[in-house]
Amino acid sequence: MLDRINGLFEEAKLAIAKATTSESLYEVKVRYLGKQGSFSGILKEMGKLTPDDRKTIGKRANEVRDELESLYLSKESGLKRSELNSRLEKERLDITLPGEKRMVGSDHLVVRVTRELCEIFGRIGFSVRLGPHIEKDFFNFDALNIGPDHASRDMQDTFYIDDGVERKTGEFSPWILRTHTSPVQIRSMMTEKPPLRIMSPGGVYRSDSDVSHSPHFHQVEGFVVDENVSMADLKGTLGFFAREFFGSEVKVRLRPSFFPFVEPGAEFDASCPLCKQKGCSMCKGSGWIEIGGSGMIHPNVFKSAGIEYPKYNGFAFGMGIERIAIVKYGVTHIGAFTENDTRFLEQFRS
Ligand code: DAH
Questions:
Q1: From the CA of 318, how far away is ligand 1's center (Å)?
Q2: pTM for this one?
Q3: What is the tens place of the pLDDT at every residue in 5-36?
Q4: Neighbours of 297 (CB within 10 A)
């Protein structure tokens, strides 16, 4: 029996030494020292021995068990320590490393100016409505008193959508890319009741392009429909916009002009904010800069939109967003709006 004990001792020592994880070490412990383990089996047989043998063999068995127990404990603490170390190594974090640099984008100048406009007109009670870029010929032209023979319908200016329907020569396709933001006037008047104070920014399309024209640019439309609206209200509104947008010293003037959807119609100019009317290249020495078109809404427009006129009347105005951005921020090259050169874009970080 002594031989079996010593044999098991050697076997168990080897198994402990070979264990590489605390889990497999625990299995070794269960196999040799557990209740159902090999040693317990031998100790159960001790009853059959003579008292002398029991004394010597019992002593040896206790020694072996104590020794295995302590071998187990020291191996276990060694394995646990190295397991912890390798886990910590995996989770190692060097807090002195420089952080990851993230690129932060900036608003496009058109977006920034659009936001400024919404904010400025919002302060005097205007709310924003948007319209579709693919527009019906009716909203873009007919309803705005632009008859079928009007020059702005010319194929030169308007992008027509080919909807696959065959039409006779001279007959217009009902779908186009809107050439201005004015159709939003009609859409709003048809769906909302006066009083209306609405502004509508957005992209427009014209099929001309040269150094000073782009086929896609942005406009803002503004209009008021109420009782007893006057030209003075129009001028007051444009003056407020010009002072808030360009600077408090800027004045506005109206010059008689023609647009089919207003009567009377006027172009409006702002006193040059860059040279303060001393004369510069932006105002071409005149001290004034053309900003947009405006006027009192034409009775035919109210008629097509179903607004009761003359109980209600109103004014409207429209201007180019790139145009006023150029004046305010001194942009000299219109390509800058579409080339996406980050050196240009980054200047307008807000
Ligand atoms: N829709 C005109 C254009 O694209 C701009 C304009 C002129 C708008 C006069 C108006 C207006 O509301 O009254 O050139």
A1: 4
A2: 0.72
A3: 888 888 888 888 898 988 888 998 888 888 88
A4: 26
